[in-house]
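Batch job 17 of 40 flagged for manual review because the log was empty.
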Amino acid sequence: MPIEIETRTGLVRLTGEFMPKEIFIDHSKIDREPTHPGVLFAEDVLPELDGGRHTVGKIATLLGVSRQTLHRVMAGRAAITPEMALRLGKLCGNGPDLWLNMQAAHDLWRLRHKLRKQIEEIPTLS
C-alpha cells in the first residue's frame, strides 16, 4: 500500500518501486545534506501510518526493536542498517531498498563534504 506524504522538499511517494535506470542524479551538485531517513520516518511517515494512532513504543514493538533503538534512528543519531531497513520496509509496505538508498545518499553526502580535499588528491586511473 503506497504512502504519499508532503515533505519540505515536495511530495514523496513511498511505494518500494525502483526508479527507472534513465534517471541519474549528480550527487556532487547537491548542496543540502539529504534528510536522514530516520528523521524522515519520524517527521513525515510515522504520523501518517495507520492514521498516526501508534506511539513510538508501539511502533518499536511492532518492529521488534527497543524504543531506545528506534529513538536513536528517528533522531538521526543511528543509521538505518540493512536489518532496520527490512523492518521499516515491511512495516511501511515499501521494502528495504528505499530506506537503504536514503541512508546511503545521506552518508555519501556527509563523507563527500568531509573528505573532499583528500578525495580530490586521488588520481583517476584509466
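Reviewer: the log was empty due to a logging misconfiguration, but the result itself is present. The mean pLDDT is 86. Unflagging and moving on to job 18.
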